[in-house]
Amino acid sequence: MIKNRQEILFLYDVTDANPNGDPLDENKPRIDEETGINIVTDVRLKRTIRDYLYSYKGFDGTDGKDIFVREIKSEKGGIKDGKARAKDFNENLENILEMAIDIRLFGGVIPLDKASITFTGPVQFNMGRSLNKVSLKHIKGTGAFASKEGKDQKTFREEYILPYSLIAFHGIVNENAAKETRLTDEDVDLMDEAMWNGTKNLITRSKMGHMPRLMLRVVYKPEENFFIGDLQKKIALSFDILEEEIRTIKDFSIKLDELIDELIQYSDKIEKVFYTIDKNLKLTYKGEEIDLKDVKEIQFQEKSY
């Protein structure tokens, strides 16, 4: 099981797509109307992680590895509910924790016949928020089929997209809660891979245009019960055009001044920092472009996927 408090910063961008539609508002991208900031729920990010682990890493119910929260057809028709999923594991909590990596990561409510058991997830994410103001675009087009058999007129489709959104997620890995779900270092490494590659593999029609750009995981020394917090608020975009006109990763750089200064300030509490970065992303510190490996006060360790 993990023994270190850990903190996550994950950035990805979305081009000409809908990062996270609101089903109660015509499936429009979620936008804070006061600030123009795009919002993405933590549920969407967890879904990305689960889907990647299921589709690419063998957590499909075979070889003792599974995803508890996933859509499975019920013999009664429709999709299995939580109680039916628990029965797939013989309502055995030991089996669920041993097999279901998503319960070890994110916790969950396990509905049993006589009672429900709740596991608090060691990994928790805030709502993702874009670092740039976004503009909403409404697109209309024709469908592939006629509006009615025998008619020449085709159906119409409508959708809402964002031309560009750079989204930042912040997360915490709580080593204390990990004792309950038995979260391991290997599980967290798999989550890193799933965040990065799972985002890149969002290649459905509505999700094309997602690209991971930067991932940091700060591993604190054991027994500290300390973390800096709000890492996503310690970075900022630098650009020379109107903010709403940002369209690509080449239109800005990311200022890391506050983030790096705080990492250095608390370096005595930090064991190491894992990171993955897109080669096209420009990072700056004190006005100069920077490679994280050049920050000697912190042990930065690059991971590639």
Automatic annotation (TrEMBL):
Q: Is Ligase set as a keyword in this record?
A: no
Q: Does the keyword Coiled coil apply?
A: yes
Organism, per UniProt? Answer: Acetivibrio saccincola
Write the record's keywords in alphabetical order, separated by commas: Coiled coil
Which terms does the UniProt entry file under GO BP? maintenance of CRISPR repeat elements
Q: Which InterPro entries match?
A: Cas7_Csh2/Csh2, CRISPR-assoc_prot_Cas7/Csh2
Name of the protein in its database record: Type I-B CRISPR-associated protein Cas7/Csh2
- Which Pfam family, giving just one, matches this sequence? Cas_Cas7
